[in-house]
Amino acid sequence: MTSTTLNPSSMTADWRDFLALTKPRVMTLVVFTGLCGLLAAPGHIHPVLAFAAILCIALGAGAAAALNQWVEADSDRLMKRTAGRPLPAGRMEKTSALHFGVGLSFFSVLTLGLATNWFAAAILAVSILFYVFVYTIWLKPRTAQNIVIGGAAGAFPPIIGWAAVTGDISALPIALFCLIFFWTPPHFWALALYVRPDYANAGIPMLPVVAGERETRRQIWGYTAIMAIAAFAPVLLRLTGPLYGTIALLSTAYFAFLAFRVFRSQEMDTTKMKAERALFRYSILYLFVMFGAVVVDRWVIG
Amino acid sequence: MTEQNEKPLDQSVIRTRQRSRAVVMGLVLGAMVILFYAIAIVKMTGGGAS
Question: Which residues of chain B does A14 touch, with a Cβ-Cβ cutoff of 8 Å?
Answer without folding.
Answer: 17, 20-21
